[in-house]
Amino acid sequence: MEQGSVLEMRHIYKTFPGVKALQNVDFTLKKGEIHALMGENGAGKSTLIKVLTGVEEFETGEIHVDGTEGAVINRSPQEAQNRGISTVYQEINLCPNLTVAENLFIGREPRKAGLIDWKEMNRRASELLKGLDIHADVTKTIDNYSIAIQQMIAIARAVDMSAKVLILDEPTSSLDDGEVEKLFSLMRRLKKEGVGIIFVTHFLEQVYEVCDRITVLRNGQLVGQFTTAELPRVQLVAKMMGKDFDDLAAIKTEEGQIGKEAEDIVIKAVGLGKKGYVKPFDLVIRKGEVVGFTGLLGSGRSETVRLLYGAERSDEGELFVKGQKHSARNPLSSMNCGMAYLPEDRKNEGIIADLSVRENLILALQAKRGVFRLLSRKQQEEFTDKYIEMLQIKTASRETPIKSLSGGNQQKVIIGRWLLTNPDFLILDEPTRGIDVGTKTEIQKLVVELASQGMAVVFISSEIEEMLRTCDRMVVMRDSAKVGELSGEEMNQASIMSTIAGGQ
Amino acid sequence: MKSGTLKNITSKRLFLPLFCLALVLLVNVITTPDFFAISVRDGVLYGYMIDIINRASELVILAIGMTLVVSASAGTDISVGAIMAVSAAVCCSVLTGGERAATELVAPLFAGFGAAILVGIIIGCFNGFLVARLNIQPMVATLIMFTAGRGIAQLITDGQITYVRVDSYKLLGSSFPGFPVPTPFIVAVFMVAITALILKRTALGMYIQSVGINRRASRLIGIKSVFIIFLTYAYCGLCSGMAGLIASSRIYSADANNIGLNMELDAILAVAIGGNSLGGGKFSLAGSVIGAYTIQALTTTLYAMHVSSDQVPVYKAVVVVIIVALQSPGFARWKKSLAKKKGSMQLEGKEAA
Amino acid sequence: MKQRKKMNQNTFLLLITIVLFFLMYGIGCALFKDAGFAKTQNFLNLFVSNAGLIVIASGMTVVMITGGIDISVGSFVALACMMLAWMMERKGIDAVPAVLIVLATGIAFGFVQGFLVAYMDIQPFIVTLAGMFFGRGMTAIISKDMISITNETFMAWAKAKIYLPFGGYVNKKGVLIQPYIYPTVVIALLLVLAVFIMLKYTKFGRSLYATGGNEQSAMMLGLNVRKVKLKAYVLNGFLCGVGGILFCLNTLGGFVEQAKGFEMDAIASSVIGGTLLTGGVGNVFGTLFGVLIKATIEAFITFQGTLSSWWTRITIAALLCFFIVLQSILAMIKKGGKQD
Fold first, then answer.
1. Are A88 and A168 in contact (CB under 8 A)?
2. What are chain A's domains?
3. For B202, which of A353, A368, A374 is closest by C-beta distance?
């Protein structure tokens, strides 16, 4: 191991069925540094963390931890913890019904005559928190406190268990500015004490505020390790999103088909928003247009389309669909207005795993028709065959459960499901994530084709070149707010990156 | 090749229920030789098999409702037995006009039947509201009626057994004169047919499964999950009410303490034996129906082997534990780790070779 | 402001229960003054007739804290009574070994159920539903007829009155009547205290809460959640054994239909006492009050004279419904509040 480092990971490989999650990834963490681990969806950040903490096994590679001879393999989070690697997750792993002190000391409570010594436990807990400048009443249950305080208590627990490596997995995503500042001062304090901190986040500003070095991953591969001071923001964004323009012009053919008339407006949002979810925004989408929503993970791009679709109910502003005011009450009413929505989370919100390809395909149309007007079996089969052929879905049969299809084919079924409802407005949230390259191109082509037939499409992707290839216009999101709209000449990589990065 | 076909057969959905049924019947062939004999006595079919088909009727009807509840909400309705008692009490009280015994009907039959089924639906709606709207775990929510049901039934009948000694009332639980097939069987067939028809002719079956498999995704494609779950409980209430009527007609009385006793376990067991996962999702109505007949066959077999009625639950409990354990995640984990071990051993063997 | 409101939620439920009990008892005293509802002995009888339930409801609370449930307790009580009666009367086994065998059976019963729940991941409700039928059926297999207990040692335990030095009164004939309790009450209350200490002051006790609060978190905090759950069911099995014996000391006999619906009384007592059905929250003293409320309802009905016994069932179900819905609404408010 190198001098001064607490953790070294070398040549880590890990594959999930059909996906190369990590390919030859290296990672080094020094004593007393805050190291940002960055990358878009599917870049492999969380897999790397899981491999490190023993949640997932890895295939080849070596992990060295300061204080342990030779390579180590952690088989469980407990084992990792015993070696001094503690993790504080985004979803806080504390017990909400126990007191602060208990959460700090559970499993190692101070005892007197065999019984838990609450007085001593509370005393030590307050001392610990005081030492870290965290203000909380240790005798109250933890659900009395904000997420920020809970995060810090989780960190305090990790620190008290003598952590050498502290992993903070997106700790700031639900904190406000003041809370973030508190967390940062705690992080700086720990850094001074020699703890190595891995900071997983998607907030650029925060990275530049506290981190010493940055490691960027993309598509399971290491892009590089950089010193924060030497890497400009725009370059960081470029490294995260990639910039290989192989055949950019190939897909987009004719311009100027987009409707210009007032009646061509499909979607018009005026001050639409929801408190604590998405800040109010205005938006117009026309017939035949592909609008991209871009921004880093967590910037509010998915939240915005959920609001448009009515998956979440807005609490301010108005939405007009084809000129009619539409109070997006529930998904069904949106569907009846001609909307369709392919959610980001395919597994939990898209597929109905145990049902067949046929059933998955026709369900949305069926729901739209209503329960009593069942599509005949013959119709169902015709539709299914049609879409299997049209989208080239690879499946053993119509009746194969969708869960046994590959990710890309599952996604095609879901797209087919929505096309079948014959929508005017199609929302695709990350339709190409976790899908092989060939299918990706197919989906991109399909999007362009649908738009040329007059459909209004919203397209969200973490990969910028994909967006540039397919979109006519790009809406840029940052911190749950719409911060810009780019089209025509302005729509190039540099300006998108700088709008995303904001400031400098 | 051979193991392939075997696997093919065993993986069919109805394999488990049919296998269980065959097993039970096989035991009978050995222990009770006249098990399959069917004769006609007093113009009515008679024999062990007929007894099974007749006695299983209530269970078949309950199993229909339970199947839908399990599928949509991944939970069970444990109040079905209690609902039976309530609906029987309501029916008899309506027919006797509140008296404890009657030899003549005070109200027309259909009024009693209607009231009984209505009460079943109302209690089902109550359960459905708690589960679907208030998000209370199904078994906990139905626990309330499980506790209160028999009390309510006693309240209605004043704690006494209410007799309706009228021949027309007995028809539902026996058979029509001159017609050899027992009425309960006809009602059960009717209920199965109606339910199957509804599920086949409307999209409800698909909706129910869809909600049971993935509630969030179902909502996003425009299915009203809350309402669907509510509906299954209401329907389960209807089925329980119907089962209560038959049970009451058999003994031409309402016995609050004993009608539908222990039926909830049998109904759950029928669903499980039918090859349906208690974790919700895909279901097979046919499986549950076969499951119900299997259980009745088991019960009748035990009786034929001179096991008394209050001892029968022991055997059923053992069967339910075995079947549920085989379905459990714990067992799947164990099987997986075993397969892994075997796999790695094979691998080692190959390497060694 | 917000913090204060949240802090009260769990204690709020407990508080309702305690207030409810005293309110009901007070109403009883006022209504049935002439019948002697307010007499010390009648208050003590609330404990005397429910000693077994107190212990079993404590066990139920332990299981429910982990997020589980056990609906087999009623039939296990029947089994325990039947085993005691059968062993002592039909097999001539002494009271002490008979009691020990029942305790061992309880532990074994708890172990099997706990194993199925914790290691096979089967829903506790299903497992214990099967357990419920198994217990009742086994009782019938041992004996279909009622067996009364005449064993001298056992009778001596049952009849040993402990007179209290206070609360006595002089009756019409001028004899001082002192209030008394049975040893069963002492055992029950001691066990409640023991469970209380276990829950509050031992590692195991706290891991029960952690498991019920958030299983995933508890695992990440380094607890062996499966083992904790198994132990909870084993402890519950032991308490069921004790509860069954205490129950038997009260009824002095075993029959198949005994203690029917007992599981509901135990669950209702726990829930009314502030135990959350979702797990993670619960207190045995609350449960004790839950039992007392149930006992008071029964006393009401006895003293009233004209009300039928099934009113107990219905009232308890109504109370249960009230508390379950209240819990669910509180949970929704809490969840809704978090989003703001």
1. yes
2. 5-231 (3.40.50.300), 245-338+423-436+450-504 (3.40.50.300), 350-422 (no CATH)
3. A374
